[in-house]
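Chapter summary example.
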Amino acid sequence: MKEKGYSSRKAIPSLRSVYKDAFDIGAAVNLTTIETQKGLLTEHFGSITPENEMKFERLHPQEEVYTFEAADRIVEFATNHGLKVRGHTLVWHNQTPDWVFTGKDGKPADGETLLARMKAHIDTVVGRYKGAVYGWDVVNEAIEDKSDLYLRESRWLEQIGESFIAKAFEFAHEADPKAVLFYNDYNECDPIKRDKIIRLLKTLKERDVPVHGVGLQGHWNLHHPSLDDIRSAIEKYAALGLQIQVTELDISVFEYNDRRTDLGAPTESMLERQAQLYEQVFRLFREYKDVITSVTFWGAADDYTWLDDFPVRGRKNWPFVFDASHKPKDSFWKIAEWKLPEEAWI
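The structure predicted for these 346 residues follows.
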């Protein structure tokens, strides 16, 4: 039998085609990568998420000023290439300008003022992309990681109260009744945080808040989380009757708590482990394709990843299934070859 391999780029199967009967395959993008990774994005992905360009500080830096140019270019790119767009994100404790939380007197804005500003922002942003953006991460990362706290301390929570979460979903639904609305968070498979996320989602559903799905960010690494925890999380979220999307998938070759700067390139064994993990998690995703509607990588190839600067600034990472030259890694073949026809091999 001939060694597995492909004679040309044309022979490499498209990920979005391989998974077309299971779920959407997406990638996070920015203004640089829609140019430098254009071929990869249009060939392998059916959905894109603006990495930062739709966050509050980028779209609405001042109360009377909106800056839509970058987000518009990404939406235009998607439209021109037949790609879906996920909106990210409307309400978050991070990357939100100070003016949002500050009253005219320089003191913290009261809850009524802050809610009015939230509504105006959501009305304008969601209204602008109505019909072009199919779904939104409405509230991002509102749950606290610490086991003894429920909600994350934030200015939204401090100045409005817990109701800010429900209000954000209600405003988004009013702005675009057809949009699919998600609560999105990380460490979503950790049992303690998972159960707090479920508590929040149950509360919202009991109050008939228009939340339609849960976004599992999926910032994982070679050692965490366990497959059992991922499976358990999927099953427990699915039991809520919500659709599930994996929204920011990457598998770091380094552990989160390893802050060394001199680790160098990944070893062969690290890349083998990464490929094994991609194979295992995608097998799991396929098993739950009835509830998982999309899997989005937080990037597309190893030439650009936010993990190059987080948690260690300037330390290179290699978290994706395409390498820095946009060539398939072993990780790619592990998630693609399960459905390849025999005649594809040479």
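To summarize the output: Residues 1-10, 342-346 have pLDDT under 50 and may be disordered.
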